[in-house]
Amino acid sequence: MADTLKPESAEQVREAVAWAAAEETPLEVVGSGSKRGYGRPIQTAHTLNLAALNGITLYEPDELVLSAGAGTPLADIRQALEARNQHLAFEPSDLGALYGEPAGSGTLGGLIATNLAGPRRIAAGAARDYFLGFSGVSGRGETFKSGGRVMKNVTGYDLSKLLCGSFGTLAAMTEVTLKVLPTPEKTRTLMVLGLDDATACTAMTRALGSSYEVSGAAYLPAKVARESEVSYVARAGGSVTALRLEGFGPSVEYRCEKLRELLNDLGPSEELHSHNSQSLWREIADLKPFVARPELAVWRLSVAPQAGPAVVAALLASLPEALYYVDWGGGLLWVGVAAQGDAGTAQVQAALRAPGNGAGGGHATLLRAPAELRAGLEVFQPMEAAKQALVARIKDGFDPRRVLNPGRMYAGV
Fold first, then answer.
1. 286 vs 92: CA distance, rounded Å
2. Whether residue 345 has pLDDT greater than 80
3. Could you tell me where the DSSP H helices lie in 36-151?
4. Is the pLDDT of residue 360 over 80?
5. Of 41, 82, 259, 292, which sees the most CB atoms within 10 A?
6. Taking the CB of residue 73, how many other CB atoms lie within 10 A of it?
7. CA distance 315 to 309
8. CB 241 within 8 A of CB 272
9. For residue 206, with 0-12 CB atoms within 10 Å meaning exposed, 13-18 middle and 19 or more buried, which class applies?
């Protein structure tokens, strides 16, 4: 069993990493460990647990900026923001339950390390777009920081963008600074009912191309919709194409009415108001259909939105029992398949090369599968040689002795 190091300060993190570098012994870097199942499994003799770096160190609601220790639970961040009617605009997914952990157990550092963003990504941007700065320790055992408290602080290299989504392979972050935004006054979701995949794609494209400022666009096939805990969705009697509008009350009401008129020729529609609307988008963001099916391997496919129906059709032709739904206006496909063999890797990669997907663009990530399967598979989209060399050079710069989460994303780095 791995020995766990639990530093209580940034200096103790530096000392721990410096020791590991000197001894050339790798460390598994974790916060709460809620996303250990995300990425390739790693075996280390020592775990660097950053959970004690906990607490909000700066919060200025008027300046829309928050700083906190990397081990701060996201539940604490959300509670502090909600008290001031603010939120994380990129709507991060809570993946705790997906991996069999308590809901809300993820940390701020883990959020940034995985660059998580939910349904509002299409309107508000990704986590990295709100990541203002950080303090951390490189794999050389050196303390460094980047960024600041304002978006325009770009002196030197913008290392924040590089670390966001690096899965702890470049540095152990000790403190994180984010931009926050006011919570919308009102939320309403227009549901267009009974559409097939292609027509749903048309509806989402038309809505997102309109002037009505849609902040979420998802498609739930009938099998997924009827399992929703939102009764209006579960009783829809077929598929649900969900389109979210947010903002000031009168504006939301007007835009929802106009959007309904715009899509009237595609199928019947209904509306969800604030509470039910928020519940539905939380289910979409937190991958609820797959939480209820722990036996499934879960894939995350990013494609051009217009290619979504062709990719889904190719997948279902070879994996007819696959469970799926669509987010980001057709550009993000969540797919569940049997967790056996190669967990559907061959079929997923073939679907990305489907004729309707243009030049075969997009990428796939195996978000959940048993460790023994992930150990032998490409969890992240394979890279061509030039990108592999670049990634290796970046790793050499930050962590030449390969002590921080080695192999978590790709073998050798």
1. 9
2. yes
3. 74-83, 108-114, 121-124
4. no
5. 259
6. 21
7. 10
8. no
9. middle
> Nearest-CA neighbor of 334 among 387, 376, 406, 283?
283
d(CA 112, CA 167): 8
Q: Please give the span between the terminal C-alpha atoms of the chain, in angstroms, as a whole number.
A: 23
Average pLDDT over residues 62-67: 97
pLDDT at 155: 57
**Percent of the chain at pLDDT exceeding 70:** 97
Residue-wise pLDDT tens digits, 230-257: 999 999 999 999 999 999 999 999 999 9
Token readout for 10 is: 């940034």
Asked whether 309 and 197 are in contact (CB, 8 A), the reply is yes
Say what the pLDDT of residue 1 is: 52
Q: Which helix (H) or strand (E) holds 125?
A: none
pLDDT per position as a tens digit, 114-141 = 998 999 999 999 999 999 999 999 999 9
User: Does residue 166 contact residue 114 with C-beta atoms inside 8 Å?
Assistant: no
The tokens describing 364, both together, are: 């796939």
Pairing of strands 332-338, 296-302: antiparallel
Per DSSP (E only), the strands in 96-162 are 131-138, 143-147
Q: 26 Cβ partners below 8 Å, 6+ apart? A: 20, 42, 44, 45, 46, 402, 403, 404, 405, 406
| 217 vs 61: CA distance, rounded Å | 29
Helices (H), 60-177: 74-83, 108-114, 121-124, 159-163
Q: 86 has which bridge partners?
A: 182
Per-residue burial over 285-314, b if 16 or more Cβ lie within 10 Å, else e, is bbbbbbbeeeebbbbbbebebbbbbbbbeb
Nearest to 214 by CA among 179, 266, 262, 180: 262
Report whether 20 contacts 26 (CB < 8 A).
Answer: yes
Find all residues with CB under 8 Å of 388, minimum gap 6, and list them.
410
pTM of the model: 0.94
Could you tell me which residues come within 8 angstroms of residue 183 by beta carbon, excluding any fewer than 6 positions away? 81, 82, 85, 86, 87
Residue 349, classed as helix, strand or coil, is: helix
Question: For residue range 291-310, what is the model confidence (pLDDT) as tens digits?
Answer: 999 999 999 999 999 999 99
Average pLDDT, the chain: 94
* Average pLDDT of the residues in 327-349: 96
